[in-house]
Design brief:
single chain; mainly beta; three-stranded antiparallel β-sheet; two-stranded antiparallel ribbon; 42% strand
């Protein structure tokens, strides 16, 4: 079933409250007035307070899964509201799923 396409400017957070900043390679396709986010874009997490015991283990990046199958920009799949952003530490450990809000609803993909 089609789902809204994530766009630059939607709100992304790690499950611990860190802020995610997206840097997209898309400079062609706008959804809801902003560029669509792509599966291979860069997502940087700042301000994550997560700790394991006494060791700081903040989320620093996102890796996405569940991208669009048929909606692509220059051959790269866009991200959908149903995609999962896996929050990872600097050591590559998955620490939860990103929280997404403020997604445009005009353009959908599957």
């Amino acid at each position: 079933m089609p789902a809204p396409v994530l766009q630059l400017g939607c709100t992304l957070q790690c499950p611990h409250g860190g802020t995610v900043t997206a840097v997209t390679a898309d400079a062609k396709v706008r959804t809801g007035g902003a560029f669509a986010l792509l599966v291979n874009d860069t997502f940087v997490v700042a301000g994550c307070p997560f700790m394991v015991g006494t060791k700081p283990q903040p989320c620093v990046t996102l890796q996405w899964t569940g991208e669009a199958r048929s909606f692509k920009v220059d051959g790269t799949p866009v991200l959908l509201q149903t995609s999962f952003g896996l929050c990872k530490s600097a050591e590559g450990l998955v620490q939860g799923v990103a929280l997404v809000s403020g997604v445009q609803t005009q353009v959908k993909g599957d």
